[in-house]
Specification:
The protein has helices spanning 33-39, 76-90, 93-109, 124-134, 157-171, 193-205, 219-229, 233-239, 257-266, 274-279, 287-292, 312-327, 335-342, 344-350, 382-389, 416-434; strands spanning 2-10, 13-23, 26-32, 45-53, 55-60, 112-118, 137-141, 143-144, 179-185, 210-215, 247-251, 269-272, 297-299, 366-369, 395-400, 403-407, 410-411. By secondary structure, the protein is of the alpha/beta class. Strands 5, 6, 7, 8, 9, 10, 11, 12 and 13 form a nine-stranded parallel beta sheet that branches. The protein has an eight-stranded mixed beta sheet with strand order 3-2-1-4-14-15-16-17. 56% of the residues are buried.
Length: 436
């Protein structure tokens, strides 16, 4: 396929009259449109206003999609323990499959082609199946909770670890490598030391498996960990093996100087979730400091109940503006910096190679966008447009691994309207059961 338009190669390189040529799952050429049309006369042609790498949602909760809007204006721990976790506990395999599928469809139609997804304790296999059916690229994991957890979600330590290992064996590196596994303890408050150390052992036992958890999102969380362990959260995670180049920590809002130094020295990835942090009043993550230390910072939406969207373009805008407000410096977190967080940095956090840029020999994860909307008139600077003005609604074309999943504002091979209808029915039933 030959795709033409303004090509965003990476966060510093654009080709105004450019083209990208794909064959099978790879990009085989990137360059001037006229030259590539001559070189590849037999390729199917598509034209879009902007072509860019698929965005990476480095921390989402697809299975929470049915809870959109049920716990607004609520403090984090109440939001989690009074609303979100009880909802997860009530979801059977069919509901979990539909919720995850709904989340993945939202990602695909708004330009996110890769996710790191924090699932739930039970029926994680249903979410893996949904990811495979939709065709998204993802690093997914079953949640582990073996202490301080609501009824229905707390498991025995060995049961949680055994179920995780079973899922690794079944789903890690499947669907031509699109699906990878992340060992996913919920967070330190809900996991014993034995559970957390067991997570590290599992990640070490299987090549390419990573670890993904929440960390230092909220001051009450940090106080609870310190009371239990005598350590600040990041140091406790380091003690039990949950730092390093194969670890992605979501949030990291409240870290001190020593913790930041540890994150940098260990190569641990941080996922910044600005909309969620604002909505739950968790605070403002020190993103500029992280970047200056060389910490890889990616972007995530978190879950629909605390955002309430999985649109990565919204998250880019929020990420830039929030740091400007925090520092009172309008020059910080430039559009190009934030775009890199949502693409290449996200790919590195997720552990996918040759992803996050449009280059010859790299994976064909590409989105095509229109600028034929009033909001996009004029486009004086393409990065400014993508970060500050664009919406996921502007996406017209989404390709993952060379496979077209979204075309002309329609999902390919999936009845999205039927998924939405089923999701509404399940959400109504859950709300009635939980009296939400």
């Amino acid at each position: 396929m030959l795709l033409s338009g303004t090509v965003i190669v990476d966060a510093s390189t654009t080709i105004e009259e450019g083209a990208v040529v794909t064959e099978d799952d790879c990009i085989v050429a990137v360059g001037d449109r006229t030259d590539l049309v001559e070189q590849y006369p037999g390729h199917e042609r598509r034209e879009y206003d902007i072509l860019l790498p698929g965005l990476v949602g480095s921390h989402i909760h697809s299975v929470q999609s049915l809870g959109r809007g049920v716990a607004d204006d609520t403090a984090l721990l109440s939001w989690l323990f009074d609303y979100v976790l009880p909802m997860e506990a009530e979801m059977d395999a069919d509901v979990m499959y539909t919720a995850a599928k709904l989340g993945y469809l939202e990602c695909i139609e708004s330009g996110t082609t890769t996710v790191i997804d924090h699932l739930s304790v039970h029926h994680a296999d249903a979410a893996f199946d949904a990811a495979i059916d939709v065709g998204i690229r993802g690093r997914l994991g079953k949640v582990l909770m073996d202490t301080e957890s609501p009824a229905g979600l707390q498991q025995g330590t060995q049961t949680a670890l055994d179920e995780t290992e079973k899922l690794i064996r079944e789903y890690h590196d499947v669907n031509d490598g699109r699906i990878q596994y992340a060992v996913t303890p919920r967070f330190a408050v809900s996991c014993t030391e034995a559970c957390l150390r067991g997570c590290r052992d599992l990640a070490d036992a299987y090549d390419g498996v990573r670890i993904h958890t929440h960390a230092s999102e909220n001051r009450d969380e940090i106080a609870a960990v310190e009371e239990e362990t005598g350590m600040r959260n990041i140091f406790w995670l380091d003690e039990v093996g949950l730092t390093g180049e194969d670890v992605v920590l979501a949030h990291c809002v409240w870290t001190d100087e020593a913790e930041r130094e540890l994150l940098a020295e260990s190569g641990t990835h941080v996922c910044h979730c600005p909309s969620s942090n604002m909505k739950l009043a968790s605070g403002i993550a020190p993103v500029i400091d992280y970047l200056e230390r060389g910490i890889n910072v990616a972007l995530g939406n978190d879950g629909p109940p605390c955002n309430n969207t999985l649109d990565a373009f919204t998250e880019m805008r929020q990420a830039s503006l929030l740091q400007k407000v925090e520092t009172l410096d309008p020059t910080t977190t430039a559009a190009e910096t934030v775009f890199e967080m949502a693409t290449r940095n996200g790919a590195e956090a997720a552990g996918f190679e040759r992803l996050g840029e449009l280059r010859e020999g790299w994976k064909a994860d590409i989105i095509g966008m229109t600028t034929d909307v009033t909001r996009a008139t004029p486009v004086n600077d393409v990065f400014s447009h993508l970060v500050y003005a664009a919406h996921g609604d502007d996406v017209e074309f989404t390709m993952v691994d060379g496979e077209v999943l979204y075309d002309g504002s329609e999902h390919v091979g999936i009845d999205a309207a039927a998924v939405r209808e089923q999701a509404r029915e399940y959400a109504t039933e859950l709300n009635a059961t939980l009296e939400l």
